[in-house]
Amino acid sequence: MMGIEKYYFLFALAFIWIVIACVQDLRRHEVDNWLNFSLIAFALAYRAFYSSYASDFMFFVYGALGFALFFGLANLFYYSGVFAGGDAKLLMGLGVVLPFFGFMDYAYVGFGFVMLLFFVGAIYSLIYSAFLVAGNYKKFASEFGKNIGTRKNWILASIFALVFVIFIYSLFGIDLLVMVFGVLFAVFVFFLLAYAKSLEVCMIKLVSAKDLTEGDWLVKDIRLNKGIIKKTVHGLSLGDIVKLRRNGRKVLIKEGIPFTPAFLIAFVIMVFFLAVSGFEFSSLLAFLS
Q: What is the pLDDT of residue 1?
């Protein structure tokens, strides 16, 4: 078991913290900084204490390097708009928690977990978005029709181009079924993009300035009497909120899908799979790929 017992505390700690993060995210679309930062601090402190107690210096080093790796990934996902700030910080915390026994485990466990997270997140987001669409069907249907209409010529041109290319390749032995599958897949991707774009209308709401919280995402720049509050990837700052409250403004903000439940599901699946497989980490990447 490679001394996996020393990770039991970290697994329990992460599970409890992610559950609390889920409650916060589902209730108010926000995860407190203190929660994510305390997970990082407690996990690093535990690794440092255990390393000193058991004279296992690498136990702390692996955790610190895990944090560094996930810090880089979290910032990449945050600034590319994939994650909100709370999700990015939670990912950093899990970089300290995940079990690493060697440098190759950063690929097997680290990137394996990220792959699993996005796979679970995609399914979770589709299910969650279906409830959003059901509650805002008229707005969504109208927006979806517009998006399909504006992309209609592009879709048709792309399909015809794909059919032509596959037809040429079919002369060299490509099966007709492959051509049909390729066309259907192209159509599916285009409709999925239109669906994702149309979904934004279901996540936009008009909010009074007194109800704004730090990190809320503006739909567009807000022009005030003295200056402009720009929409950024960081969302509203406390200073921005003060200005809006002074002006008594209502603003349009875009709420994201609360993503922390995907973290919880992915974490539980990974720990369960590793336990069942006897913590043979190399089999995890093979399972996910």
A: 46
